[in-house]
Amino acid sequence: MVAPSAGPITLLDPPRDTAAITAQDLSLQFPHFTPEDAWAIGSLLRARLLAYTNPCCINIALANSNQQLFHAVTHSGTVPDNDNWVSRKRKTVLRWGNSSWFMHNKFAGDEVAFAAKYMLGSTAGEYAIHGGGWPVRVRGVEGVIAVIVVSGLKQEQDHQMVVQTVQDYLESIGAVAEGEKKKED
Fold first, then answer.
1. Under a CB-based contact definition with an 8 Å cutoff, are residues 164 and 5 in contact?
2. In this structure, what is the dihedral angle of CA atoms 129, 27, 50, 100, given to the nearest 10 degrees?
3. I need a labelling partner for 119 at 20 to 30 A (CA). Which of 10, 113, 137, 174 fits?
4. For residues 146 and 68, what is the distance between their CA atoms, to the nearest angstrom?
5. How far is 156 from 28, CA to CA, in rounded Å?
6. By C-alpha distance, which of 6, 12, 22 is closest to 157?
7. CA 89 – CA 123 distance, rounded (Å)
8. What is the pTM for the complete model shown?
9. How many domains does the chain have?
10. Does residue 1 lie within any of the structural domains?
């Protein structure tokens, strides 16, 4: 497992082009996704997020049953609204099969256009097109099998924290992105 750093990790700027976001998300597929994987990723996310002063919420749940595999906060100051954001980001990922960051960039953050496009009407508030909700995919398995959500930083940081943590975790277990060759020891 990747050890967390003493200070905040350097987060790269996430892509804003929807094709680049899709390519990145699809490249980070798991060889398997077990409760142990969820615990390891959730614990690593929490350790990394503790370096930030913002209170953050981390949630990892299965797609087909909403069974929570990991749920934690980082600092005092989280409120029920944090869980509301988690739920809304998660719902977006499950309905459209893309990260909430993808949906944000697809609509340039325009929630009115988003709600109109999908005729959401009074249910529009159930979805969030803000970064931080990310689809877990397993090689050879159709669709999204779980959702990882981080909420509490700026939306691009929420998204990138998940992406970089998943990437680091996959590298630590010897899994590689689609199309890459496994590095020899």
1. no
2. 10
3. 137
4. 9
5. 18
6. 12
7. 14
8. 0.90
9. 1
10. no
In a domain, 77, yes or no: yes
pLDDT digit string (tens) for 42-87? 999 999 999 999 999 999 999 998 899 999 999 998 888 889 999 9
Looking at residue 31, its amino acid is P
Contact status, residue 72 vs residue 150, Cβ threshold 8 Å: no
| Residues contacting 107, CB < 8 A, separation 6+ | 113, 114, 117, 129
**Residue 28 vs residues 38, 119, 127: alpha-carbon distances, Å:** 15, 31, 24
What pLDDT does residue 182 have? 42
CATH number for 160: 3.30.450.150
33-40: long-range pairs with CB below 8 Å, 24+: 33/136, 33/138, 33/145, 33/146, 35/69, 37/169, 38/69, 38/70, 38/146, 39/69, 39/70, 40/1, 40/169
For residue 57, the one-letter residue type is C
**Cβ atoms within 10 Å of 64's Cβ, excluding its own:** 10
- pLDDT tens digits for range 159-185: 999 999 999 999 999 986 544 444 443
> Measured at the alpha carbon of residue 51, what is the angle toward residues 47 and 54, in degrees to the nearest 5?
105
